[in-house]
Structure formats: C-alpha cells, structure tokens
Amino acid sequence: MSFIVAIDGPAAAGKGTISKAVAAHFGFAHLDTGLLYRAVGAKVIAGAEPVAAARALDPVDLENDSLRTAAVAQAASEVAVIPDVRAALVAFQRSFAGRDGGAVLDGRDIGTVICPAADVKLFVTASPECRAERRFQELSGKGTDTTFETVLADVKERDARDHNRATAPLVPADDAVLLDTSELTAAQAIAAAIKVVAAARS
Ligand code: CDP
After folding, report:
1. How open is the CA angle 12-5-168, to the nearest 5 degrees?
2. For residues 150-154, average pLDDT
C-alpha cells in the first residue's frame, strides 16, 4: 500500500532534516527532490543543455557529494524555472511516491503538482535570516569559506525565483499543514511533523 507524505518549503527551512526523520520513524522511503534539480544544475555547469540533462538523469547522478555546494544550488534554481526540465522529472518522482510501504518526498511542488492527492502535506517555513543562519552553519561546518551575508543573499535570490516562476511556483497547497520552524529546535520540528503524519495514519 502506498502512503505519501509531501513536504514542501523554501531553501534551508528544515525540510531535509524533518523528511529524513519522518521517513526513519515510519519506515518510509525518502526522496529529496531538490537533488534532482541540483544534479541537472551540476550537469549544466559542466556544459550540458538543461532539458537534455534532465531527460538523461540517472539515479546514480544523485549520489554525488558535490551537489550540496552553493554554486550548484543556484544552478538548480535556474534550471528549475524551465517547464521542460520540470516535466522530465515528474515520472521519476511519481513512481517513487507510489511505491509500496510509504514514501516521503520533499521539495517545492510535491503537494501542489507532483502528488496533489498525497495523504499528508506539510509546508515547512522559517524566516530568511533563520534559514540563512542554518545554511551558513552547515556550509561552514563542511569547510566552505563563505559569510552569513552571502548565504542570506543566496537564500533570498532563490526564494524570489522559486516564488515567482510561472511553472510550479513555491506556494503551500490549500490543504497543507504549515510548520514554522523559526523558533523550534530540530527535535521539536521533527516531533511536530511526526504528530501530523501519525494523525493522518490513524
Ligand atoms: O536544500 P535547499 O532547500 O537549499 O535546496 P534544494 O531543495 O536542494 O533545491 C534546490 C533548488 O531546486 C531550489 O532552489 C528550487 O529552485 C529547485 N527545486 C524545485 O524547483 N522543485 C523541487 N521539487 C525541488 C527543488
């Protein structure tokens, strides 16, 4: 039996942490759909044409540590505005979502476009400053030489592009539960998300 949890929200709101923990708690599979766009973005940086890169994407392309850099994130948000790139990635995401045993997908348009009939929809947000601080800590921890101001500017630029694009813009689904993690620890945010999913399962 499939059971689909859609977790959407802007950059560095905590979707990844929450999604991994929810998937582990309920024994569901997890797909970070941002990695699909990051993998296409990385191929474009390497000289590929975006739509061809999206159509040729292989799951192995997602297992690449270098996809987490700020440059790849920017390239991802640029290719993500191209309707044919998005279209090329739909089937993979829907087939992952429909697998037996349950799935958590996190991204920007899971509850609105990819899985509008998902069993649970969460929209995870936090203030731009909180999100930039978290991403700054994450990148600094990995040894990346950057500043809070640079990361904040990057987050705001990607927010604007994600919100304003014509195809699958970043908006909460009408039936999504909103979770603002600005004032929450990771453990509190995870507990809140697990509660929402548990209620939908009973
Ligand atoms: O981890 P972070 O939130 O910084 O970004 P991500 O989830 O890895 O996504 C990178 C970029 O891919 C985003 O800025 C979006 O432009 C795009 N994306 C999208 O358009 N739709 C998705 N379902 C997932 C990501």
Report:
1. 60
2. 96
Every domain of the chain and the residues it spans: 4-201
Q: What kind of architecture, by CATH, is found in domain 4-201?
A: 3-Layer(aba) Sandwich (3.40)
User: How many of the other CB atoms lie within 10 Å of CB of 199?
Assistant: 10
pLDDT of residue 202 exceeding 90, the answer is: no
pLDDT for the residue 179: 97
> Does ligand 1 come within 6 angstroms of the Cβ of 106?
no
DSSP 61: G
pTM above 0.90?
yes
**Residue 72 — φ and ψ, nearest 5°?**
-70, -35
Report the phi/psi class of residue 81: left, alpha or beta, with left for phi > 0 and alpha for psi in -120 to 50. alpha
Asked if residues 45 and 75 have their Cβ atoms less than 8 Å apart, the reply is yes
* 37 close to ligand 1 (CB < 6 Angstrom): yes
Q: Tokens for 202, please give them.
A: 């009973």
> Residue 112 has what DSSP assignment?
I
In this structure, are residues 37 and 132 in contact, taking their beta carbons and an 8 Å threshold? no
pLDDT of 65:
85
- Best mutation site among 37, 57, 110, 165 for ligand 1, i.e. most ligand atoms within 8 A of its Cβ? 37
Q: What is the mean pLDDT of residues 1-19?
A: 95
